């Protein structure tokens, strides 16, 4: 069974004070054995978070990266820079990057390769819009996004990823997929991964990323193919995020 992972995505939120509050809280937190925790903080807070999370179980992550290693790309941040700040993980293909910033499957693949090239763990985000769900295209969309990346990677590269299913219609809307809806997609993802390799499918961590909160985390995490969460708004509240982490045990 994959090791549970609870990852928080702060998006364009937070402050140095919040970084320090999380560092203090997780220094003393009693987490279930075997549960891993990561926080994806905005670029300006990476170094401060690296210091604040030192000595805690929290791994440092970033929210995206450039597909270029260096150069005249004003405003971009490379994987090497993220590593230099202490990050070990990075989100790739979050729905907000796809819809607001025009990242298509090719751009997502390029960023996955850039992350792998510098030793970062890509957390590959997949998900459908409300229109796609209502049209009965959920599996076609989500599995298509998976295949656009996995078909281009070697077996060894595939094994280094984490996958997060985040139904776009349940992000920041207050709506949440039912545990049964979430499990259905996670089950389909696991089944598709078996077509690449059975061991890959059994070891791959599949996170649920659609408005996971303290009051619904336990039920979602109890589903057989949900191995953790990619938490949005609740990851900005120390007590709520701790409660979600404790639900993963």
From TrEMBL:
User: Where does it mainly reside?
Assistant: cytoplasm
Recorded hits in InterPro entries, A to Z, give: Aldolase_TIM (IPR013785), TIM_sf (IPR035990), TrioseP_Isoase_bac/euk (IPR022896), Triosephosphate_isomerase (IPR000652), Triosephosphate_isomerase_AS (IPR020861)
Q: Domain of life here?
A: Bacteria
Q: In which pathway does it act?
A: Carbohydrate metabolism; erythritol degradation; Carbohydrate biosynthesis; gluconeogenesis; Carbohydrate degradation; glycolysis; D-glyceraldehyde 3-phosphate from glycerone phosphate: step 1/1
Compartments (UniProt record): Cytoplasm
Q: What does this protein do?
A: Involved in the gluconeogenesis. Catalyzes stereospecifically the conversion of dihydroxyacetone phosphate (DHAP) to D-glyceraldehyde-3-phosphate (G3P).
* Record PANTHER family: TRIOSEPHOSPHATE ISOMERASE
Q: What is this protein called?
A: Triosephosphate isomerase
């Amino acid at each position: 069974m994959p090791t549970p992972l609870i990852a928080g995505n702060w998006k364009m939120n937070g402050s140095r004070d919040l970084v320090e509050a999380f560092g203090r809280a997780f220094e003393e937190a009693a987490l279930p054995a075997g549960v891993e925790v990561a926080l994806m903080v905005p670029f300006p807070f990476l170094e401060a978070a690296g210091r604040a999370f030192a000595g805690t179980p929290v791994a440092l992550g970033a929210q995206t990266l450039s597909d270029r290693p260096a150069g005249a790309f004003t405003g971009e941040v490379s994987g090497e820079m993220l590593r230099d700040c202490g990050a070990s993980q990075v989100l790739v293909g979050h729905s907000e990057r796809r819809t607001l910033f025009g990242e298509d499957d090719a751009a997502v693949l390029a960023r996955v390769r850039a992350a792998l090239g510098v030793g970062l763990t890509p957390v590959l985000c997949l998900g459908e819009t409300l229109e796609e769900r209502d049209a009965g295209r959920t599996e076609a969309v989500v599995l298509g996004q998976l295949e656009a990346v996995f078909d281009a990677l070697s077996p060894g590269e595939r094994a280094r990823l984490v996958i997060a299913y985040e139904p776009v219609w349940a992000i920041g809307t207050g709506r949440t997929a039912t545990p049964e809806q979430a499990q259905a997609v996670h089950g389909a993802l696991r089944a598709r991964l078996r077509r690449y390799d059975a061991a890959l499918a059994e070891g791959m961590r599949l996170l649920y990323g659609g408005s996971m909160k303290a009051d619904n985390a336990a039920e979602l995490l109890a589903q057989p193919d949900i191995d953790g969460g990619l938490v949005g708004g609740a990851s900005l509240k120390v007590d709520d995020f701790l409660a979600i982490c404790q639900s993963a045990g």
